[in-house]
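Shipment paperwork, digital attachment
Item: protein structure file
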Amino acid sequence: MSLKLLSNTLFQNKKAMISRYYYANRTKKVTLYSKISPLGDPNTSLVPELDNWVQDGNKVRVGELQRIIRDLRKRNRFTQALEVSEWMNKKGICIFSSTEHAVQLDLIGKVRGFLSAENYFNNLMDHDKTDKTYGALLNCYVRQRQTDRSISHWQKMKEMGLASSPLAYNDIMCLYINLGLYEKVLHVLTEMKENKISPDNFSYRICINSYGARSDIQGMEKVLNEMECRLGNAMDWNTYAVVANFYIKAGLADKAVDALRKSEEKLDKKDGIGYNHLISLYATLGIKSEVLRIWDLQKSVCKRRINRDFVTMLESLVKLGDLEEAEKVLKEWESSGNFYDVRIPNIVVVGYSKNGLHEKAEASLEALMEKGRATTPNSWAMIASGYLEKGEKAKAFECMKAAFSLNVEKKGWKPNPRVVMDILIWLGDEGSPEDVEAFVASLSVAIPLNRQIYHALLKAKIRSGRDAHEILDRMKTDKIDEDEETKEILGISKKQINLNG
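Attachment content:
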């Protein structure tokens, strides 16, 4: 790797990584939604953007704010969604109904926990304590697996006549699934029917999951047959996809394919998530022809493909070992106009590495850097590991240098100790003192200095004929005593070592 490319990693544009999903279209009129949507960093507060929008004389529409909240929730940007909801409430943009309160309560639970959600609920006016807000609080309890609170709250909802839809029952079934109490799920479904509450798609799907988790295929099929008889045309693609997944796990490939065909029949032709599920499941089955067919179908009926779609397709192709086709899809993404998402090219890099194409993987990362695109420490470290397995330690060293240059402290990346030690041993035997010192300085950001690291420094110093006392002093300062290997490196007995110089 050239010094120019290595230095470029220090200046990669962070904005290239901020969005996972959004498509760049600069021709559209600037709206509050278009200003907020790209701010994908969860640490970015939206309040200044909202305040600035108003201060600039722009109108704030309730419908647009509600749309922003829905979108942020869909993207799992819950902290930002809560900011918008609380700003909307505080500014008096509209009088909150029980629906708006339920949304805010749910977001509080996700961001601050069930106790904060409980406090918000208790402070509501009585007329706002409806099935919606009661249901939102139940969902908070279930999400955090608060069994006693969940059951007690559910019983109270039933006593008050607020559990007249499948939602509350579904929540309790989800609780039992999350706790691994699968046998209790069917009892809740039975109680639903006894209380004249018709199960919906989700109710049945939870039961199917409870049987699938126990590898009870016969029980799963019994629930599926009941669901098909009760719901008929209201059957959804997701249920058949879930069934297909359990068939795959049970090794029933033919039944899985049949379930996937039924899933496709029920699929909304513009549902990108549905196509992604089908592609992933066909890839797990190893049926490449179906993966390619569904991808072509998705491209023909969906207006555009967002980053998530490319992630699914590339992961599937790599799983199938078709790197040539993956390269074609990667080129489609590059020309799509979507925001840069480091995960997407990284999928292909991983594919190269797993297939022993380490030079190709490295060249791909270098090409990204030349374009000013972000790369990840883990990608470089993975290639380094591959080079080590091939005995190409100098190349492994260069890749690890690139990994450490990517501000690893902020990225929270921890290098593989085996890879680090192999490189250190090689540096100690063959590297210059300057190379070892620079590598150790990089290491200290990610891992604490240890005896092995100091041994590499000692070896390099002694090989170059330089005084090693400075290293020995540093070891003593760090409370790392010399051992037999230290003495062997120094080539003198313990009595001859003067750690004080």
